[in-house]
Design a protein that fits this description.
By secondary structure, this protein is α/β, with parallel strands linked by helices. It has one domain: Aldolase class I (TIM Barrel), CATH 3.20.20.70. 32% of the residues lie in helices and 22% in strands. The chain has an eight-stranded parallel barrel. It has a two-stranded antiparallel sheet with strand order 9-10. Helix 1 runs parallel beside helix 2 and helix 1 runs parallel beside helix 7. The model has no long low-confidence stretch (mean pLDDT 95). Bound molecules: ligand LARABZUK. The ligand O=C(O)c1ccccc1NCC(=O)[C@H](O)[C@H](O)COP(=O)(O)O binds next to strand 2 and strand 8. This is N-(5'-phosphoribosyl)anthranilate isomerase.
Length: 218
């Protein structure tokens, strides 16, 4: 039996207009990419603007900033005080010490850690992080990019996963795969990006709507 419907994060938004459209459709979390190498990169200034608008109109939606191997001092400097995001998603090779420092210096923000899965051993490496993060995000491993590749994790590694923290599945999630995800993989959340894009950072709102309708069983 599938567990209750998973939460949905739509990631890689680049405009206020699309962020509001996706929020209206029912997203539980909206992600913005603060990784300069990404074609979905959004500057700090624009990100703040988008998140402020979201906070005003949809305060319950999590606002997720995605970073990748960013120097810890910079993270602490940028996110101290009254940050516009509710979650930092670490999408690089950050270690446990890095997570502990974020916890210590910016305790008012949620911390998600992405793990890129290439082999079964990559799953085994997650456990020690669990006490220092709020959620686990599993994404596929890719040579060219750390995220947003549209590539799936080998499903062999996704059977009977058990973590002590909520976990999100990412990597090539499209409407065609969701049924299997709900019945066999059963994550707490779905993180979706490139399958609903017209071009990197620009979402197809109709495709996005179809995903939410599918999940609601409409
Ligand atoms: O999306 C990016 O361009 C990106 C670049 C560098 C680090 C992380 C990135 N995205 C992180 C995400 O949370 C994506 O939603 C996740 O990788 C899934 O993407 P997709 O396979 O395209 O659905």
């Amino acid at each position: 039996m599938p567990k209750t419907n998973p939460l949905v994060k739509i990631c890689g938004l680049t405009s206020e207009e699309q962020a509001l459209q996706v929020a209206k459709l029912g997203a539980n979390a909206i992600g913005i990419i603060s990784v300069e190498e990404s074609p979905r990169y959004v500057s700090a200034e624009i990100k703040k603007k988008i998140f402020k608008t979201l906070e005003n109109f949809y305060p319950k939606i999590d606002r997720v900033t995605v970073v990748q191997n960013c120097p810890i001092d910079l993270i602490i400097k940028n996110f101290l005080g009254k940050p516009s995001e509710t979650i930092i998603q670490l999408h690089g090779d950050e270690d446990i010490d890095y997570c502990k420092k974020i916890r210590k210096y910016i305790p008012n923000i949620g911390l998600w850690k992405a793990f890129r899965i290439k082999t079964e051993e990559d799953i085994d490496k997650i456990k020690p992080f669990e006490d220092f993060i709020d959620a686990i995000l599993l994404d596929s491993w890719n040579k060219e990019t750390y995220g947003g590749s549209g590539k799936k994790i080998n499903s062999i590694y996704l059977k009977n996963l058990q973590f002590n923290k909520p976990w999100w599945l990412a990597g090539g999630i499209s409407i065609e795969w969701i049924d299997e995800i709900l019945t066999e993989i059963k994550p707490d959340g779905l993180d979706i990006s490139s399958s609903i894009e017209i071009s990197p950072g620009y979402k197809d709102i109709k495709k996005t709507e179809n995903i939410f309708k599918f999940l609601k069983g409409i």
